């Protein structure tokens, strides 16, 4: 590993002499720029480069999380222009492997955030920063069980099937519910991280299951659409709804009782620590292979406490 990092440092220094490269550019490439969650990652990444001159930071992502080919192109373009390092939140665990491999072959260090790569891509990046999504899913499941008991129906409104974060988050939620109760799981339904799609899907689920006791929206746009559908159906407060992520809309839903809680990741920390990890690698320093950026369950009772306010955005 030390030999590899040293080689990367030399290659990055050489890359800076290329006319097409931005001096010291660290490319932060996320799943989409059209989300407050990812804009909060941007804020953290910007904070990491503030006050120093050795590196600049660029922030980019496709128009939607389902535009996987566009994200692949963004990574390949970053490699082609010889950036110093890449911080990447892969939209698809398999599809991004070849692009990350190209970065590895070009001796450009890559740090993965939020969602993991497939097993065949693990040798091509140097660190992974994420919420422990399985633990987060279990945390939400335990909250659901404490609210609804061990019987009835619970719907799962998910986002993009097969994404690393979704596999852990939703998979471990469902497994925990199944292990600890006789609850019937309805779904998962996949919104493709589109709020309007989640709203329509939730409206249909509520209409088709008037005996639903609980519902889980597994990421920001999905949870917002779910919450709006619950309000429109007049079921706010009568069904236990739990969300994921912590923008202003979801905070309002927690405060007014539409959501019993929302699990919030350290999105700012993903950006800040991700860029800092790249800078450490470029300096020849050791970086942990996995860095847990944490999760907090925000409820009406604790939402104003400092440890929760620190992760909301």
Automatic annotation (TrEMBL):
Domain annotation Periplasmic binding protein: ranges = 26-285
- Name any one GO molecular function: carbohydrate binding
**A GO CC annotation given for this chain:** cell envelope
Q: Does the keyword Signal apply?
A: yes
* Keyword annotations from UniProtKB, A to Z: Signal
Q: Name one Pfam family in it.
A: Peripla_BP_4
Record flagged with keyword Cell division? no
Q: Where in the cell is it found?
A: Cell envelope
Query: Chief subcellular site?
Result: other
Source organism superkingdom: Bacteria
The signal peptide here is 1-23
Recorded hits in PANTHER family, A to Z, give: D-ALLOSE-BINDING PERIPLASMIC PROTEIN-RELATED
Protein name in the entry:
D-ribose-binding periplasmic protein
> Which gene name does the record give?
rbsB_2
């Amino acid at each position: 590993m030390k030999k590899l990092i040293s080689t990367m440092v030399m290659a990055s220094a050489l890359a800076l002499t290329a006319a097409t490269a931005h001096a010291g550019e660290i490319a932060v490439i996320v799943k989409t720029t059209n989300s407050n969650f990812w804009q909060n990652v941007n804020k953290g990444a910007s904070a990491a480069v503030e006050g120093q001159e050795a590196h600049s930071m660029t922030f980019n992502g496709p128009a939607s999380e389902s535009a996987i080919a566009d994200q692949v192109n963004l990574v390949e373009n970053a490699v082609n222009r010889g950036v110093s390092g890449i911080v990447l939140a892969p939209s698809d665990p398999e599809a991004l492997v070849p692009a990350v491999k190209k970065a590895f072959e070009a001796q450009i260090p890559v740090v993965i955030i939020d969602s993991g790569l497939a097993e065949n891509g693990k040798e091509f990046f140097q660190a992974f920063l994420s919420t422990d999504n399985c633990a987060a899913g279990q945390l939400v499941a335990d909250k659901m069980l404490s609210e609804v008991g061990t019987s009835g129906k619970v719907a799962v409104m998910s986002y993009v099937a097969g994404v690393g974060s979704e596999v852990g988050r939703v998979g471990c939620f469902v497994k925990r519910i199944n292990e600890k109760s006789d609850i019937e799981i309805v779904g998962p339904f996949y919104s493709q991280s589109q709020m309007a799609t989640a709203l329509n899907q939730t409206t249909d689920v509520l209409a088709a299951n008037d005996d639903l006791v609980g519902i889980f929206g597994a990421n920001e746009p999905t949870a917002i659409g779910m919450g709006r559908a619950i309000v429109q159906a007049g079921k706010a407060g009568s069904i236990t709804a739990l969300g994921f992520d912590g923008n202003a809309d979801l905070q309002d839903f927690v405060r007014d009782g539409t959501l019993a809680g929302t699990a919030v990741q350290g999105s700012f920390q993903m950006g800040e620590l991700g860029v800092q990890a790249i800078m450490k690698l470029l300096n020849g320093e050791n970086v942990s292979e996995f860095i847990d950026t944490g999760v907090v369950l925000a409820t009406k009772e604790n939402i104003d406490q400092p440890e929760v306010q620190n992760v909301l955005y």
